[in-house]
């Protein structure tokens, strides 16, 4: 049993908000704000940070906020309190996604402590993986982690199916690369070297000249028309890793929020065992390709995330907005 050294509702609220800012988000847009009232935190989507063209419906924005919500829940448990959560509490305020209140005192179990320890360590990977395998038992445990939050994580095992997902990713990336709207939106969130911005994707967080995986999973072209990007990394890391699809039975805002919570639980669990994730959301931003994926590979469920899980030794720094910028 892990009893917090000091415990107070105020400290639990502060810990939850501090932790939430480390959640993953598309292009590191960090599309969330928090309002604190006593022992209660309101999580709101920040529509100004939504991708206007890539995420017109706000699905990726809400998935990102779901990841922040799970992070808050985990941090509050680690601080010694059970979170009392209400999702989508007010139909007249669509930006208000959840309210988290400090609940009864509780001692965090080992699983909570393990997940909480990874909140600031977890990193998104944007290249190939080493040839080291992800243990089958870990993959099975990640599937259970996703299910515990209401989503389904399906490893794509058949080589032909992996090839299909890779081909869809290439097709979506190729189409988006020819669309000036998508390209300009992408480079808005690509930070130049030496930038002091606390959001977006740093130039050192993706390779300048990415090594192709086999089959090839196309990466976002953050270095479009410039030579930004990192020269570091393992040039021999060409492994695809374990390809996995995160799906939900429905495609409502509640499903998107649940998908984000499942995603973050999976990512923190994987990180605790040295496994990182690379994301490929291009397919999910194109309605026809997403529908094809749903019908052909997702058994009719709605794909909310495409990821590759693998092992890398290419450590990167992470940037996040300060807490004071998130409170409103």
Characterization of the model:
The structure is a single chain. The chain is an alpha+beta fold and 328 residues long. It folds into two domains: 113 residues, 3-Layer(aba) Sandwich (NADH Oxidase), CATH 3.40.109.10; 175 residues, NADH Oxidase, CATH 3.40.109. It is 35% helix and 16% strand. A four-stranded antiparallel beta sheet has the order 1-2-4-3. A hairpin with an 8-residue loop joins β3 and β4. α2 crosses α3 and α4 packs antiparallel against α7. The radius of gyration is 19 Å and the shape is globular. The two termini are 36 Å apart. Pfam families: Nitroreductase. This is Nitroreductase family protein.
Structure summarized in a few sentences:
The chain is α+β, with helices and mostly antiparallel strands.
Features:
328 residues; alpha+beta; NADH Oxidase; 2 domains; four-stranded antiparallel beta sheet; 9 helices; 8 strands
Question: Can you say what the CATH homologous superfamily of the largest domain is?
Answer: NADH Oxidase
Spatial strand arrangement across the major sheet: 1-2-4-3
Fraction in beta strands? 15-25%
Order of helices and strands: HEEHEEHHEHHEHEHEH
Number of strands: 8
- Helicity, in percent? 25-40%
- Tell me the overall shape: globular
CATH architecture classification name of the largest domain: 3-Layer(aba) Sandwich
Radius of gyration using CA atoms only: 19 Å
Largest sheet: 4 strands, antiparallel
Pairing-aware structural class of the strands and helices?
A: alpha+beta
Terminal residue distance: 36 Å
Instruction: Give the overall pLDDT as a whole number.
Output: 94
| Sequence stretches where pLDDT stays below 50 over 5 or more residues | none
CATH topology of the largest domain: NADH Oxidase
The CATH C-level class name of the largest domain: Alpha Beta
What is the number of helical segments per DSSP (H or I, 4+ residues)? 9
Number of domains: 2
Protein name: Nitroreductase family protein
Pfam families: Nitroreductase (PF00881)
Keywords: Flavoprotein, FMN, Oxidoreductase
